[in-house]
Design brief:
Layout: H1 2-25, E1 42-44, E2 49-50, E3 59-65, H2 70-85, E4 91-97, H3 105-112, E5 118-120, H4 125-129, E6 137-141, E7 147-152, H5 157-165
Parallel strand pairs: 3-4, 4-5
Antiparallel strand pairs: 1-2, 1-5, 3-6, 6-7
Length: 166
């Protein structure tokens, strides 16, 4: 009888250890200013998988937007204007649409004449990793992949000027 109790206790300890190990090794990625940016789980409008490492070595503005958010579209147009005004900057903008797979983002991009690289967060995994509350929300990521700033709502114009001037 004691052997069965000992084996049961040992088995419980092994199972508990396995659960603890798996929980520690599978931590969910979360965006925190001052820490490494979680990778994005997104596709471009041609269906190709994209990753933050595709733009390694550049400062990135990762902008989350929705097609029903008029202020988001205005901000994307502001980004385009800044890109034209500061063509020699080392800044790259990723316009991350969060409307899911049911919305035709390409139609919105065409209709609004958006010239920025647009990617889709079809399963909203990136929105979850970046703890998105609403749109627009932007993250500034340095060339080494560290999050420098988070802006909930529009990026203030003076901050945009500083970002684009370098």
């Amino acid at each position: 009888m004691k052997i069965n109790e000992l084996l049961t206790s040992l088995l419980k300890l092994i199972l508990l250890s396995a659960v603890c190990f798996s929980l520690m090794s599978c931590k969910e990625q979360q965006a925190v200013v001052g820490q490494s940016a979680p990778d994005i789980a997104a596709f471009d409008l041609q269906g190709n998988k994209v990753s933050l490492s595709d733009w390694k070595g550049k400062t990135i503005i990762l902008n989350f937007w929705s097609e029903t958010c008029g202020i988001c579209i205005n901000e994307l147009k502001s980004f385009e204007q800044f890109m034209q005004n500061y063509p020699n900057n080392n800044l790259h903008i990723i316009a991350m649409n969060i409307d899911g797979e049911k919305i035709d983002t390409q139609a919105t991009v065409t209709k609004r004449k958006i010239q920025l690289p647009v990617v889709k967060d079809q399963l909203k995994i990136s929105a979850e990793r970046y703890q998105l509350i609403g749109t627009p929300t932007s993250f500034v990521i340095d060339p080494e992949g560290k999050i420098l700033y988070k802006f909930e709502g529009l990026i203030p114009p003076k901050d945009l000027h500083l970002l684009f001037k370098g």
